[in-house]
Here is the input.
Amino acid sequence: MTNAVLTTDERAPVVKKKEKVYVTTLKRLLKNKLAAIGIIIILLQIGMAIFAPIIATHDPIKQDLISSELPMFSEGHWLGTDNYGRDVWSRIVHGARISLLVGITAVSLGLIGGVTLGLLGGYYKKLDGIIMRVVDLLFSFPGILLAMLIIAVLGTSLVNVAIAISIWSIPTCARIVRGSVLSIKQKEYIMAMKSLGASDLRIMIRHILPNAFAPIIVFATMRMGTAILSTASLSYLGLGAQPPTPEWGAMIAQGQDYMWTSPHLTIVPGIAIMLTVFAFNVVGDGLRDALDPNMEIQ
Amino acid sequence: MQETLLEVNNLVTEFRTADGNVQAVRDVSFSIAKGETLCIVGESGCGKSITSLSVIGLLPSNGRIANGEVKYEGKPIHNLPYEQMRQMRGTKISMIFQEPMTALNPVLTVGYQLREPLILHHKIKKSEATKQGIELLKQVGIPYPEKRMNQYPHELSGGMRQRVMIAMALACHPGLLIADEPTTALDVTIQAQILDLINELKEKLNMGIMMVTHDMGVVAEVADRVMVMYAGKKVEEGPVAAIFDNPKHPYTIGLLNSVPNIDDPDFELEPIPGSLPSLHEQIHGCRFHPRCKFATDKCREIAPPEFTTKEEGHVVSCWLHEEVEEEVKHGHLVAQI
Amino acid sequence: MVTLSPKSEPKILLELKGVKKYFPIKGGILKRVQGNVKAVEDVSLQLYEGESLGVVGESGCGKSTLGRAILGLEELTAGKIRFRDEEIQDLKRKEKLKFVKEMQMIFQDPYASLNPRQRIGHALEEVFTMHTNMSAKEKRASVIDLLNEVGLKEEHFDRYPHEFSGGQRQRIGIARAIALNPSFVICDEAVSALDVSVQAQVLKLLKTLQEKYQLSYLFISHDLGVVRYFCDRVLVMYLGTTVELGTVKGLFADPLHPYTQALLSAIPRPSVHVNTKRIRLQGDLPNPANPPSGCPFHTRCPIAQDVCKVDKPAWQEYEIGHFAACHFAGTKI
Amino acid sequence: MIALIVRRAVQLVFLLLGISFLVFSSMYIAPGDPATMVGGATATESDLEAIRDNLGLNDPFLVQYGRYVKNAAQGDFGYSYQTKQAVSEAISIRFPNTLKLAIASMIVAIVIGIFAGLISALKHNSWLDVTSTTFALAGISIPNFWLGAILILVFAVNLGWFPVGGLSAPFYTVDGIKQLILPAITLGTGSAAMIARMARSSMLEVIKADYVRTARAKGVKERNVIWIHTLKNAMIPVITVIGLNFGFLLGGTIITEKVFAINGVGRLMIDAIAMRDFPMVQGSVLLVATLFVVVNLIVDIVYTFIDPRISYD
Amino acid sequence: ACGGGESASAPKESDGSASGDTASTETFTYASTSDVVGMSPILTNDSVSANITEHVYEKLFERNIETMEFEPQLAESYEIKDDNTWVIKLKEGIKFHDGTPFNAEAVKYTFDKLRDPATAAPRASLLEPVDTITVIDENTVEIKTKYPYGAFLASLSHSNAAIVSPTADQAQDLMKEPVGTGPFKFVSWTSGDQVELEANEEYWDGAPDLKKVVLKVVPEISTAISMLQAGEIQFIDNLPTEQIKRLEAMENINIEKKEGTPVYYLTFNHSREMNQDPEFREAVAAAIDRDAFVTKLNGLGVRSDSVVGPQVFGYDESADEAGTAYDVEAAKALVEKNGYGDKPIKLLTANRDNFILMAEIVQAQLTEAGFKVEIESMEWATFLDTARGGEYDITFLSWSNVTGDGSELLYPNFHSDNVGSSNRAQYSNPEFDELVVQSRTTIDQEERKAILDKANKVMIEDNAVVVMYHGIVTAAMDKAYSGLELDPNGKWTLKNVTGE
Ligand SMILES: Nc1ncnc2c1ncn2[C@@H]1O[C@H](COP(=O)(O)OP(=O)(O)OP(=O)(O)O)[C@@H](O)[C@H]1O
Ligand SMILES: Nc1ncnc2c1ncn2[C@@H]1O[C@H](COP(=O)(O)OP(=O)(O)OP(=O)(O)O)[C@@H](O)[C@H]1O
Ligand SMILES: [Mg+2]
Ligand SMILES: [Mg+2]
Here is the structure.
């Protein structure tokens, strides 16, 4: 025994079973109460989106002009009906599909653009100047105008709405990524990879990108919420989803006209959006903490 | 022997963590007299900093003193209300930290940070504080002190910053100076300057100094007495000469054998195998036994108490010394010094 | 290890001639270059096969820059680097790949030098992926061999860097450096971040490997004790320039340059009996962007004379293999 | 500092060139004919042709753009297709309103944001923190037009404390301030929430810093630890967010201006887009972009005051 | 320069009229969702600008809002010498606001300017039939037309045919500083914000009671309603259907409603092959339940199949039910029979006003009948372009007839001359064209009426368009005021409004 101990080399400081990083992250995330609530909300919404036809009590675009603008908790329509007599609950349920899809598409497109720009700008000093000027340009170009132009040029469709919103996220995302690339670039393990003869592409993709993940994920989750909200603003300006598509942003914008007579037409989708934004934001916050290695001890 | 300044008895410091409570300091006792330098040595993570933070009452928010007492000039201070403890800090006990880069506030001028404790504790006017501040900077050997007062920390070199830290800590003539690795971040030539300075000031002000370090060279240079810690426990304590010439604990011996001797070309390194256990690890018996080549079954089962040695003030926690030395109860140690 | 007698000429592995590395300082409205940080100023030296050359000096004196310049991680401002009789400083990345296998580096911070999101097994495999055509199986086998070589185990393969202790991480760094069987390894403060007990373990490992594979080391450190223990020769740098070079024995026994003397005397000795006369240097390291004229050390030198302010002392061999750059080399303070 | 300003000015010129080109080309590509918008629904083809000629819309794209740049370089930003008013004049009437609104919202955002962020950080993980976080997130997730309408309903119509809309009284009068309050809250809420979140995390970060421990070790009072040693440092990232948000505020006034009947640049821009009034669109976009750059410049300059480590010389 | 120092922040002041008759409380504010383009009748062609020009300028003739007859305004009388010659006598002693006299010279000047191609006036077409204008004497003009022009009086009573002061037009930009003979004088204009007028104390028909009138731009109608409720403004028009209930619940206002001239219809793109199939059009018409739709308008729509609306000259009651009746089963049968449901139909709509409402309901109804309809909504400018270019299958259009004359509706919107510009339906029917031309060139009004009715019926029988409803013009005014005159074309005049 004594001998065994002597020859045993150092032990790892924390003797734990090997656990994947994301499992650890998830565990930590779930310990954060707000984040756990957020995850539950998101899961519920995803469930709602997937099983929309089952959960919805009515056809979301079926009109019934006679029983229109029913208040909440009416018979057969527990969230009431809109001015066309469509069931608000069914529209909210189906709207989850569209809103989440638009959000995810917008954020993913924005990430692709932003991450690419940020990565290149941060890594190559020579490109940095140009890329950052492009980013500045996108930044200082009024977002709504950009959206209007894109939609004017490409036509009104949900995909184009998503594209427009995605472009809003590019400059912010690019800056965030560039910032982390600049700091990761200084890290010794990058120097180590260079000294081992790794190519730039390998360094960027295999070593820098994974380490810039934390801010990117946080950005993405937070942006999800804003993206869904942006569809509301665009719909308000008449640029969002095409009627009769049950999209939350469009619902709230349309309901605005009935705010005084049927407030539930804005409040219900408003709450749906609020919950989503809330959920994604707290999860984003939680992720930031969970991904922070310094939080290990606490 | 000078009168006792600080007395720490059976200190236990605990942290709340995600995996439950852990003890970073386990039942440590020691004392410091006026004008005396006690060095705490040990590997990284063995609890040196936490011991010193416990003394000054600045533990991280998830940490607390779970047991034991800290007495300053005979009065217990570990349970003082925040406000009273605050008033002690800077005046009675002050502290300098390892990283002079991060320990100074980057957005405040050197002058402001230096004046702050003076105005706070001595209730003097700003102009008067400035005068005293300049005086302090002179004392720690900073050239052009008037100019430095208006500069920001980043405009100073590392050595300079550490001197500012020291000047700040000494501003109100504290009785006890805690120095947590004050020179680790510095170059040897600068380190030598700083160590000289601390020694000089100690003499002049008759302070007690509690110096945390892991550099045996530094210990040899400044310490009057040495306390060796391992995994949160005190394993050996004694006068500096005794520790270097007649180390008793296998860990202390291991530490000394791990440092290349610059004056002895034929010196052979003898590393201690393994590494420090984590705080979560349950270890029965002596906490050092998994790395100890002399470990016996007893070591694996029962934690060794403190044994005195023939030399006065030299105590060691190791079963190997059981036969030769007689057991001392915790706490009696202080009285003997 | 290498005895430097003129008779048995050891083979030169690496030779630097007049190597300079300046970092431009940009400023002003148009971000023009306004000056240079002379991180490495005119360094020439030879490194023999199988030896350990220590490089010491205060922080910021250009040690790391010198190491990186040798590996080609920094573009040289001037000078030549010959490795096994080939000039390598101007090679393209592709052409350089074969030298990459020969020259490796171990970094100061064992944690920072490993990608925190890569299992160490994969990190090591990646080295083979980049430089060989091994099959996945072969790679794994080689990695496990490597792990054993540095005292780790197969079970460590799937762990992430944060699951290791500092010493273990440094072993992984070493494993990666020796993976391709290099002949020359630069250790940039490879043990400085480690606890003394662990430091001793790693130093032992490095020595074992050197014996086993006939490695040459460029051992950058600020700890003279470690250098004395580990190296055959020492190079002392100050503000980008070389001030003294000699065998460990010769230099420690008889330092020629006043800076070396001050450095040696400033080291705290881990013993209560040594009573060296301490030389205390005044002031701090000057700004490398604006180095003093003449001898760069004159601002802090206790024996500086007027010439030192004006003339740059020449790099001269005072004894066999013992070089120094000082107008008053050998004067004791 | 002067170097910084000059450099930014040079960059601004190129930025504006880029933006004007972008606007010009996208307007050119976008469907919708300015002539129809001038001529109205009944205009005949020959009417439209006459209008196009009159507006110079029949020239090749690059000629039109070149003319625009040339005139703009001489300070002539053209005339509205619709009202024939000089663009610079139209903008100068509206700009003060937008600026008032943006500044007032920023003040609201900063005051609420920093206060909420501070409370959250200082009472970390308490119910106060959770409440303030929840409110901040609610603030982010409420659409502007909705909040605006609710505020009007409650505070202007029902309680009558504030006017419903308009922004005509000078801002230094009581009326002027009353007019600003509701729009400023509407517009500032989102930014307040973002600032609060940034302030919170930045505070939490800074409060762990070594120098805060140093301050405590000196015996500094807790109040001063927060206000002097922590806050200034914590403000550095917050200022970035403030700067960015100010940019967004300038661009984001559109909806608030609409809801509160404020005669501002945002509305001018959106109306101009709707009416395909290209010179007006150009002018307002360029103004917003310029402001954005100026705000960023100010932020950068503010950095130098807060953080002595930053210098641009 | 920013005129109108009026504080908009005195919500309770203006209706708390007890506080006294200070000048500011006499301000009568009208909220408009958009700003005037300008204030020259010659150069503008939008209803907001017309709201101002109608009060600052006057026309030779005016249509009586009760009798729908054309009556002289600035004219004293007129005489039709022959089919092509009109001699108009002017009222005497009227002065423009700048003090210059109103006379025949001014009429000639105005009309010539309007006609001049160099002016590029958007409504030059109003006087397109005019050949020459001659000043006979100080107060008499003679106008010769190129061909007999039946709707001439209607043209002359159009707001764009208002008479401007020649002196002022030469001295200044009437777009910014208008000068006319009307009951109100221009005071100031803050573009984007408000236009301020004051009473013309020397008005020939007696000074108006309102001393100060302000047009305030409030882009959001619900904000305007809130302002009305809070007493910050006194008057709005064009009440949206969604807000009617809210307005009706408000106690401090009176709502005025009147059957009006606007017509809203679904049109086929007649240039598309699919739409040339009469059965297809019939199927669509039969599928649309217009009665159900009109109930959604909260009383703001009149149901009729007639294209020429009840308030428009040329209407005959018999047209009301001349269209294809709602019969979803018949529609289904036709869809079934001809496979109309196989191909998706693009329903283009502008995303404003009631268009979306129509689109959503009609889409649902068409879907019910078996059609496959996709809505494509667009913002206005794009919509106009797309519709003009004929890039749609079916769409909704509307027409608000300022002069209330059927020719003015049928010619621009459906005559084949105007395909590619204002005939967005791309409708082209020689028989119909012929009738429309006749209606324009006939002078005898009875005869015209018959012709228009015939043209109307042709369209209805053709199912060329499906009329959704005829608008009801609306306005809401503070109860403290009365005397509003609301025209079926949506215009109104404040000349006779009095406060309590
Ligand atoms: N806030 C904390 N929460 C939990 N554990 C902590 C906390 N701070 C320190 N520890 C743990 O307490 C132990 C002792 O830490 P301490 O800082 O005293 O070590 P040290 O001896 O000063 O080491 P070093 O030489 O690296 O400074 C370590 O294992 C550390 O991980
Ligand atoms: N990329 C760079 N750009 C500009 N200056 C640099 C760069 N890298 C290093 N320097 C400067 O070059 C000088 C030498 O740096 P180097 O890192 O080589 O020093 P060092 O001797 O390794 O110091 P240390 O002991 O602190 O590691 C320093 O003044 C440093 O500031
Ligand atoms: Mg420590
Ligand atoms: Mg280095």
